[in-house]
């Protein structure tokens, strides 16, 4: 499989290079040049298969023969061996027509683990094959950071630097990043918001001298392998509900648009997805864009769903490339307008194409808390604030015609204060994570300044000397 950039000016690459690259060198994001196609019989054959077997079938065509079958199967098996549920991503019925897809049974209690546990293994595999080291950077609004650190801690070939907005993540999220004691882990608390952190990460990728000197790699969903691993659970859930013989809709708590883009990829591969519903908190740039056709940045408002406090939504660029017929120049123009003036308009044809697949809705703070309280009272099920946003928005979009699956993106115990305030119930962390709440913390507080972050990384990354 070949991959090209959304902006059309970076080299076309194969999977392993895309895996190590992160952002494309023209500032764009890599996309597979074609979507593998699964016919009805193939999708039907997933029924009754294990998560791991479906994962292999879905992921294989994107990798081609770059990783031998047995090696890929072993990495998939290892990645999910530590999940606390045998189904990996179990589906729970929550109403006559609605289902919750629990994606939080991995080591850090967030959906990010599903991809990150595999990504860590794949990167290590490719780096070992090539005899290289890499410097991993990532920006987090809370969950990506913990999941990435868990996946890369102690790995010999990588140093990992995670940028997070100081004071804007939950205590559990912060401790998942700051209590890892391995020397290759660096949690960097920046005085800014998530968008500032993400802009610095992208800035470092666009600073080629620095990027090449430290062998920079990325673990945000700018990395195609993150999206790839997330496509799997759309197939697993839909097949459990009758696909390919029945259509299914998904509502996805959304920030950086990575998780829902994986659903779009599944649809492009042949999964009968009726609608993909974007669920946002009050930081609703995506909902506004679908309504008005104008992508317009506003300030970020801190909420009780901090992982979705995002205004510049990375993967939306991948969708723009899709609906623009992979016209790299058109995507570049829109992205240039965004960085120059903070907004851009989407033309009618691409906007109509988006609207034919995606719906959207938003949920404010009061509605989030009320949804947590109601769901606890009525069903005895404790939602985390992000999943609650999905449940609220799904109700507005569910017309009963096809099953509606809400993606359960985090465990409530990651946000105990918000959940307790809403429901009166304080969710407990799983036993093996309790020690983390009293462990010593280690973090570096830095200015939200690319130069400052780059200097810190140059001083601490072992890959600066290039190669092992
Ligand atoms: C708990 C939770 N829900 C939802 C999201 C939004 O996912 P995405 O950024 O892929 O849209 C995130 C962050 O990414 C998250 O951590
Ligand atoms: N919500 C995310 C933000 C980063 O998103 P990513 O999917 O691009 O890594 C987080 O929790 O960090």
From TrEMBL:
The modification N6-(pyridoxal phosphate)lysine is found at residue 112. Pfam families: PALP, THR4_C, Thr_synth_N. This is Threonine synthase. InterPro entries: Ser/Thr_deHydtase_PyrdxlP-BS (IPR000634), Thr_synth_N (IPR029144), Thr_synth_N_sf (IPR037158), Thr_synthase-like (IPR004450), Threonine_Synthase (IPR051166), TrpB-like_PALP (IPR001926), TrpB-like_PALP_sf (IPR036052). Residues 2-80 form the Threonine synthase N-terminal domain. GO terms for molecular function: pyridoxal phosphate binding; threonine synthase activity. The keyword Zinc does not apply. It is an enzyme of class 4 (lyase). Keywords: Amino-acid biosynthesis, Lyase, Pyridoxal phosphate, Threonine biosynthesis. Its cofactor is pyridoxal 5'-phosphate. NCBIfam families: thrC. Belongs to the threonine synthase family. Residues 88-339 form the Tryptophan synthase beta chain-like PALP domain. It comes from Roseibium marinum. GO terms for biological process: threonine biosynthetic process. Its EC number is 4.2.3.1. It catalyses: O-phospho-L-homoserine + H2O = L-threonine + phosphate. Pathway: Amino-acid biosynthesis; L-threonine biosynthesis; L-threonine from L-aspartate: step 5/5.
